[in-house]
Structure formats: C-alpha cells, structure tokens
Amino acid sequence: MNGILLLEQSLNGLQFGLMLFLMAAGLTLVFGIMDMINLAHGSLYMVGAYCIASVAAVTGSFWMGLAGGVFAAAVFGILLEVSILRRLYARDHLSQVLGTFAILLMCNETVRLIWGAQPVTLNPPEALSGPVALLPELMYPAYRLFIIGVGLLVALFLYVLITRTRIGMQVRAGAANREMAMAMGSHVQGLFTAVFGVGAALCAVAGGMLGPLLAVQVGMGENILILAFVVIVIGGIGSIRGAFLGALLVGFVDTAGRTLVPMVFDSLLSPEAASNTGPAVASILIYTLMATVLFFKPRGLFPTHG
Amino acid sequence: MKPFVRESQMHLFSKTCVALCLGAFGIVVSAQTDAAIKVGLLSTLSGPGAGLGVDIRDGFQLAVKLSGGKFGGKDVEVIVADDQASPDVGRQTADRLVKRDKVDFMTGIVFSNVMLAVGAPTFLSKTFYISANAGPSQLAGEQCNPYFFSASYQNDNMHEAVGKVVNDKSFKRVALIAPNYPAGKDAITGFKRFYKGEIASETYTALNQLDYGTELSKLRATKPDAVYIFLPGGLGINFIKQFVGAGLSKDMILFGPGFSADEDVIKAVGDPMLGMFNTSQWGHDMDNAANKKFVAEFEKAYGRLPTLYAAQGYDAARLIESAVRDTKGKLEDKALVQKALQTAKFDSVRGSFKFNTNHFPIQDYHLRVIIKDSKGRVTNRTLNTVFKGHADAYAASCKMPSL
Amino acid sequence: MAKSLALKSLDHDLKWRWSGLVLLTLMALPYLAHAAGEAFYIALATRILIFALAATSLNLILGFGGMVSFGHAAFLGVGAYTVAILSQMGVVDAWVAWPTAMVVAGLFAFLIGAVSLRTQGVYFIMITLAFAQMMYYLVVSFKAYGGDDGMSLPARSRIGFLDMSADTNFYYVTLVACIAVLILIARVLNARFGHVLQAIRENEVRMQSLGYAVFRYKLCAFVMSGALAGLAGALLANQSGFVSPALMQWSQSGMLMMMVILGGVGHLYGGVWGAIVFLLLEETLSHFTIHWQLGLGSLLLAVVLLAPNGLTSVFKHLRKEPSA
Predict the structure, then answer these.
(1) Does residue B7 sit within a domain?
(2) Total domain count for chain B?
(3) pLDDT band, very low/low/confident/very high, at C127 (cuts 50, 70, 90)
(4) Which of A257, B245, C46, C148 has its CA 20 to 30 A from that of A9?
(5) Are B245 and A129 within 8 A, CB to CB?
(6) Bigger pLDDT: A1 vs A132
(7) Chain C contact for B88, CB < 8 A?
(8) Nearest to A100 by CA among C55, C300, C248
(9) C142 near C82, Cβ under 8 Å?
(10) Which of C40, C263, C306 sits opposite B99 (nearest CB)?
(11) Closest CA–CA distance from residue A208 to any residue of chain C (Å)
C-alpha cells in the first residue's frame, strides 16, 4: 500500500462524500422542518439526471444541460410538493413512508415510459474528460476534481444561506421548533415549498455530477437514497452541519472499505473470495457505523430539537 | 379539506378492488391466444446490460421478419420479456413463459447467472433453450443438458483466444478484471488457459458496479503492461471512459473479448478505443452471403451496425427455424427436435456452424482491431484467425443424459 | 362522525360466516384450475398464500403492535435460506427444515429486536432497515451459497410420504399452514398478550406507567412475527425452488408494508387481502403493460391519501413527542 493509492482513495472518498452531502442536505431539511420521511428523494435525483442528460443531448453542451436540468428538476420538485406531498406533512411516518414509496414507484415507471428502459448517456464536458497531474506520479481525472469543487462550492453556498440570511434563519428556527416558528410568524407554507425546491435542485446537481461516472438509468436513486438516510441519521436529523460531516464520514468509510478491505483479504484469501467479502464487509461497515453512532448518540451527532 | 372516508366505505373499496382484480384476471386467463409456434425471448432490456438484450431481440426479430413471420410455414409468435439482469426475476418470468404461455422454445438470456437460474425450470418442463449468448461452463461440462443448445459460444472461448494473442505478443505482466459471476470466472479461467506469463493482479468487480475508481488506482499502483478486461455492455463503456480519463491508456495496452469492444461500446466511447485488439467468432465485415445480407438488412431496419449479440440472436432464430422446418412442425416429438437441432442445417452469419457433443459450437475465432474505416466510422476490422475449429474445454466431462 | 370514530374492539373475530366460504373456494381451487386447463394458476395461488402469511406476520407487529419495521423481508430471507442450505446438505424433511427455519428466523428477530426496540419512531424504522441491509450484504458475500446469483434447491421438502413436487399437494400444505397461522394469531390477539400488545400500540407511556414490561411484550411480538415470516420464507423457497439475496432487499420490505396497508392495517385478514390484491394486480397488469407498477403506485397513493378516520387512531401513537 503506498501513499499515492491512499491519496487517490482519499480524493475518491471526498468526492463521493460531497455528492452524498448534496443528497442528504435536502433530505435532512425536509425531515427536520416538515417532519416528513421522503422516500421519493431518490426519484428527484433520477429525474434531475435524466433532465440534464436530455437537455445536454439536445443542446450538445454539458453546461446548458446542467442549468436546464437543475431548473427542470426544481420545478418538478415544487410541483410534487404542492400537489401531493403537502398532504402528507400532518400524517404519521408510516403513511409518509408508504405515500412516498408509491411516488417512487410511479416516478420509476414514468421515467421508463418517457425515456425507455435503456440507460441514457451523459458525457462529461470535453475539457474535463482527461487527467490532471496533481503530483508527478498521480494523474487524477479532471472530472472528479470538478465534482469535488462543485461539492465544496455548494456546501459553502448552503452554509452562507443557512447562517447568514433571513430565510436561513427561518429554516433553522423551523428545524428547531416548528410550532414556535409558526407562532412567531414564519410564512410556513411558502418556506416549506422553497425548502423542497432547493432540496430537489441539490439532488439534480448530484445527479448531473454523478451521471457521467455511473449510468443514468431507472432506479438509480434507490441505492444512494439509502446511504443518504444513513447519513442524516448519523449526522442528526435537521442539521446541515451534521449532514456534511455524516456524508464525509460515510463517503470515506465506504471508499476505504472498498479499497482496503479487499486488499487485506487479498493477502488472506483467493482473489475471488476476497472480491466477494470485500464489498460486502465495506457495506456492512457503514451500517455498523450508523448503529454505533446511534448507540452513543441516539439522536445523531448534531441533533436539532424539533 | 381532506376527504374523510368511513371505515365501512374503506372496506367496501378494498373488496371492490379484489372483485375487479378477479374480473380482470378472468379476462386475462381467457384471452390466451394459440399461435402455431411460440418463442419466449427472455433478455436483459433494462439497466447497464440493456443494450445487449435489445440487440439480441432486434437480431432475432429481424430473422423472423425476413422469413415473413413464419418458420417452416407456421406462424411465429415471439413473446419478449425483461429479466432485469436478475436471476430472481429471470426465473419467475421463465416459469411464467414456460408454464402459463407454454412456449415451444426459449432464448435470449445475456448473463450467465440468470441462465443458470432459468435453466432448472426450463429443462424440467422439457422446453428447448437456444442460447443467443450465455454459455456457462457448468452447462458445457458436468451439468450439460439435452434441452440446452448454444447458438453463440462457450464462455471461455473468446477469452482463450485473447489469452493466446497476448501470450504470443510476449506481454510480461497482465492485470485481469472481470465481474464476479459465472461468466466472469469463466473468462479469467479461459484467459489463463492460454496465457502463460505473469498475472499482475486478478480483480473481480460487482456485476452492477459502474464506478471503477478503486480498480483504476490499483492498476496505477501495480503497473502491468497490459490490462485484460471482460466487462460487457455498460460496464465496459464506463470502465474504458474512466480508464482513459485517468490517463492510464498511455501506460497500459487494453485487451478485451469481442463483447467489451463491440459496436455498442465503440459508439459510446469513440476515438479513445482506436487500436484496441479483441477476439470474436464473428465480425460484421465477414465475407459470406448470409452475413452480408444480415448486416445490410440490420442497418436498414435499425439504423446502426449490428453487434455480436445481434448476430447471435439472428443465428438462434435461424437455428430454431431449421429445427421447425426439418421436423415439419412436429414439435411434440422432442427426440426429433433434438436431432434436428443437433444437425444444425442452417446458414450461419459466421460461416460454417457445427455442434459438439455437448451442444456447444465448434467454430473459428478471429482477431479484430478497432480502426477508422473508409466511411470514417470507428469500427472493428477482422484480421487473422486465432483458432480454427476450436472446441471448448469441457466437452469431455459432459455425459449427455437422455431426454 | 361519532360512530366511525368509535374505538375498535381489541378482540378479533375469525368471521367464519364468510371466511368459511372463501376457504371452501380455496380448497376447490386446484380442481377448478385443472378443469380450465390452467394448472399454472395453482402455483400463483400458492404464492399468494405464502405472501398472505408473510404480510400477516408483519401485520402482527405493524398493525397490532404499532412497530413500523422496514426490515421484515430479512426474516423471510433467513427462513428461505435456511431451508435452501439444509436442502443442499441433504435434509429435505419438512418436519425438520421448516421448524428450523422458524427458529433461526426467530433468533435473528430476537437479536435485531433486542437492539432496535430500544429506539423510537423514525430511528426504529431506520435501524430495522439498516439491519435488513446488513443481512442482505452478508448473504451476498456467501459465495458458497450462490451469493448474488442465488441458489437453486435440489428438490422440495418432503412431509412423510407426501411428495410436494406436485403443485397441488404443495398448495394444500400451504393452505393448511396459512389457516393454522391465522387461527393462531386470532387466538394470540384475543388473549391477554394480544390485548396488552394492542394497548401498547394505543398508548405506550400509559402502559409503562401501569407497570407492564412494555419492552418484553414488544420483543415477544417481534420474535413471533419474525418466526412466522421465517415459515413464509421456508414455503417460498420451496415454491420457487430458488433463493437469492433479492428476497431481502428493502424494496421487498416495502412491498410487504404495501400489502398490509392495502389490505387493512390492524385487521385480522389485512395481510391476506393485501397479498391477494397486490399479487393479482401484478399478474393481471403485467399482462397488459410492463409499466404495471405505475398503476400499483397510484393505487397505493390513493389509499394513503384517502385514509379513513378509523385507521388514524391506530397510528396516533406513532406521532413524535412534541418536545425533545
């Protein structure tokens, strides 16, 4: 195991963690403020990726695609909130789980209807499709660096938004104590819609960033959704700061698990056996991490009160 | 105001639902048609492997169309279903096709893990399976079955051919990457059978894995002179893009079987693939009448060059047609059908076609390279023959049971 | 309005008047199917019965106990794999394999429940989900038992002289199992244990202050539910002749929850109705279009949004505490 490998894997972990953060941020806000479990969050990610891919294919430009797709996804998210999700706020968690699960199924099929069952190609922009020499021995893909950059920028933007603006203040108040915030005069309905729209936009950005690396296909949101839930449970529901740290933690553990564990097993078992147990152990590690955090801090690392 | 429904109304609603379901169900049951010949085409039509299944389907249906929708004078109904690359879904769907739709032939599966799951119920129901792709070693050797015929190849073969090429080109250290499922293991086994140099690393990835960051860092660390990948369809597309994006294509030569370097991958990746060597039993530029017609008609019907999968789907259809024709449509006589299939009297797009005792083909394997053709397209050119009349390594351990 | 808001009784009646009719129809089903020449549907009916059993086991903790477990499919999978592994080792006697499946599933339920039931609300949902995912990945890593590709069973279990490879025989065995489980659950619910469980669902804090060992009751119900799911899993392994980790995915748990809510949460036959509606819908809709899940999703959404007053009182306890 050498330093280059470690550095490269750390960057990969950072990249993955930041994308998870984009997903988790929206999810934790919706959960913290509107007290709603939203299983359809992964669908927003998927719809975002598809919209970006389509606009990019039509205009021939990744950047246009990104802008157009994010906007379309935000609009879709707002429409969804206004028409259906709004009715679930006052309901219990089971109804929310089932209602949003139903939306998840419907989104999957509708996407399949519109775009077909085969995956859609989304290519990174030409300028970013080559490697960058970070160190003499380390040629890191430019695109992944770009993702890291975008992730950090968005995190900064959210930080400024939440801590330095009026809306951010209302969001924090709502997350801390909803009834009180309402009593104090927050325009709750509009705030909820805005939060949801921002969450949808963040998902779309994540979808657009990861689309060229993975595939834009039906059901792409489900795997990352589960991880996003793990992140917000670890970080504390309603806390952006918790989501950020939780996401980085999960991102690193996941990437480290996928690299280091097979390496350790490689020296002990046959390559086949190592490649079976490696990813499995890595995945189990994440859930064990969550269980451990919950054991010591039952409400997550940075619980808000709400 | 939220609409409130009384509990008694809720129960009425549930019961109405059940009644409607049963009614619709009744309609479905009574609406089963009775076409002369039914073929169940179960393939992967969604997910990263979708392109392969779609090609098999298109190749198969082209053959049916060119025969005027009839095999041996009888109407053909092709029932297409999606196995979603899942052995679970595949098995349930196969059950349905075989027991409810009572198909006469089954075909289409791309992935060998799905094939092994689907095999049991299909063979138990005495339905013939003509493989348009999957050729697991298990079905070539000890678990060979009289109802299974491979119109494609045996999994190891193409990899054996590349192994020989890499060995003959004197590469010293090769890294191997394949997905962790039966065909992936067959691939590595086949490659190692003919490559006698040093294996720098042997990595198995997940069948649904699309992000190869870890594997690429490992390659960078181990520094092989060649990399052999078996990553079909979307997996290969992602890997090659990321491989080039990480700058590794300058340091290591990439080899693959025909699957990882076929028209679908080329279309998605493009110029970075120029110069990549691969092996296959078929190339679209092969010079025989059946192939020329197939390629021309395929391009006309679908607007793209056919891949290996489409060619195999086409041949599977032609094989089934020959069986129907030679048994004069008497499909209930299983022994007769098996004999007709074994004889395989049809014009294959790959030239001559012959079955071994274990129902796998004995055929030639050629070297191909990716070049820019006269029309400026990035595509495969077939070079020399690596293996002539090559049989698989498992035929000896197959003691073919009776029907 | 007052009538529909009235508290439902804690006793649950088997309602022999019409359930007896349904039972007779089910018993006659194989003959009807053979007469129509569609023997395939016996296998479908068996599958529906198995999921009815699984959904009923979930209903025990979800509907009657108020525990929203998002990891129930794990117990189904554990039961299925136990039977498959035993079958591979040569143990095909149903009298050995099936109780073993129940015991193993019950054991896992005990371990998972002991940890999860210490949490409340959404954390309980998340942690049951997490444990189910852990089990899923664990099974994927067992390449000896097929891993991700799953494993075929060499043969179905045997009960004495009865050969269950015949679909009809297996159907009757499943039917008997279902009836037995339903009667058992009715008995349990109408007994003191069941009353306490349902009271806990209504108001846990009050039951705690009244001196009941709430945790033990919930854990007991959780284990029972897990064991019954294990039985359903054992039957499922026999029915399809194949097991794979896909059985344990969280989407499968979601499907089970869907069946329960479609059929009626907190109703004795809720799981049964839900399984019938769900699987029949899947079978019929998939014949017309591959986009059948769209119809299913819309139906589920409609059910959720139009929920009657009666059901909300069941869920009242699930609402989070007003202050931290």
Answers:
(1) no
(2) 2
(3) confident
(4) C148
(5) yes
(6) A132
(7) yes
(8) C300
(9) no
(10) C40
(11) 25
